[in-house]
Amino acid sequence: MRLLVTGGAGFIGSHLVDRMLADGHEVVAVDDLSSGSRDNLAGALRSDRFTLHELDIRDPALIRLTAELRPEVVFHLAAQISVRRSVADPVHDARINVEGTAATLVAACEGSARKVVFASSVATYGRPTTIPVPGDAPTDPRSPYAASKLSAETYLAMFRALHGIEYTTLVLSNVYGPRQSPDGEAGVVSIFTDALLAGTPTVLYGDGTQTRDYVYVDDVVDGLVRAGGSEGNGRRFNLGTGIQTTDRRLHSLIADAAGAPDKPGFAQPREGDLPAMAVDPVPANEGLGWEPRVDLSTGVKLTAEWARSRPR
Ligand SMILES: NC(=O)c1ccc[n+]([C@@H]2O[C@H](COP(=O)([O-])OP(=O)(O)OC[C@H]3O[C@@H](n4cnc5c(N)ncnc54)[C@H](O)[C@@H]3O)[C@@H](O)[C@H]2O)c1
User: Fold this and answer.
1) Does the Cβ of 79 fall within 6 Å of ligand 1?
2) Is 258 touching ligand 1 by the criterion CB < 6 Å?
């Protein structure tokens, strides 16, 4: 199968590329390298079934590319991913995440793609009242990033109605693993890992009881692959473990993996930070046969091993 991955040089996208190549597919990645890097694709670039196009998804060249390539599935991961940056510059965020999604959908249609798989975010739930957040919970965006992701979802549904192109949206919780930059939504794992390996101080905001739902990148890739099949058309699924992990527990696990003392500093909670988050993975299990397999203790060890071996 021929597949297109937007944001293919990023953290999640590059793992998806590797998995698709390992599965024997032909993979084309489009990435402007604004936050991703060629280093993430070092293995993939050695394959003759892989091509990287250094391109902004809003560039009309994307339409020419898909018209020629005719990819069967488009995995749309390219995005402005920082909530804080979206608050500081909502127009930039909308340009990449809304205009960029519209451009990707036009290109997918032009290339007669069967399906688009989209990476949305738990940020679209705002401040949920039920945790783990059920799959059919109401959305309530509280940041430009959340609003742009939700707008992108609306575009997917609208393009399906207008042009018949299928889609599945995956609502990702806090993804972590090798190759993650410290700026992402689950950047805390890579921030703590880097600091604890280097022996520099770590800080927890608040009293350490804030919770998040950490899901390992290989599990997310498995969800994306499943969503690229024939199941889950026109639906959105949470991809998370349903398990809440406190900041304090996360720190202990990473300190253990890094062989470092478990002694974080504490600072005032940051304004707007959610006290708790986890999402219900059961609908993704029923709809896509997906389940998270890598527990957090194993995942942070794999992440620390990668960080140790990474050239600095
Ligand atoms: N990491 C998480 O915890 C998480 C959680 C929820 C949702 N997501 C979503 O998953 C997707 C992948 O996230 P990630 O963590 O791998 O982030 P990432 O920043 O590593 O990947 C995004 C990629 O998109 C590329 N990109 C950005 N703007 C582009 C443009 N205009 N044209 C072409 N390429 C462009 C970047 O260079 C980067 O390689 C994003 O859509 C993100 O919103 C991630």
Assistant:
1) yes
2) no
Whole-number Å distance between alpha carbons of 100 and 96: 5
216 catalytic? Reply is: no
168/272 Cα distance (integer angstroms): 29
Q: What is the mean pLDDT of each run of 10 residues along the chain (312 residues)?
A: 98 98 98 97 98 98 98 98 94 98 98 98 96 96 97 98 98 97 75 95 96 98 98 98 98 98 96 93 97 98 95 66
Cα(179)–Cα(310) distance, integer angstroms: 9
Nearest alpha carbon, ligand 1 atom 18: 10
Ligand 1 neighbourhood includes 119 CB (under 6 angstroms): yes
The Å distance, Cα 261 to ligand 1 centre, comes to: 32
Q: Which residues contact 154 (CB under 8 A, 6 or more apart)?
A: none
Domain residue extents for the chain: 2-174+214-239, 178-212+243-309
| Closest among 128, 181, 146, 130 to 12, alpha carbons compared | 181
Query: Ligand 1 in contact with 280 (CB < 6 A)?
Result: no
Separation of alpha carbons 164 and 206, rounded Å: 48
CATH for 178-212+243-309?
A: 3.90.25.10
Q: Domain 2-174+214-239, what fold?
A: Rossmann fold (3.40.50)
Backbone angles phi, psi at 143, to 5 degrees: -145, 160
**Nearest C-alpha neighbor of 5 from the set 56, 106, 77, 64:** 77
Among 125, 145, 176, 216, the active-site one is 145
CA 219 remoteness from chain centre: 11
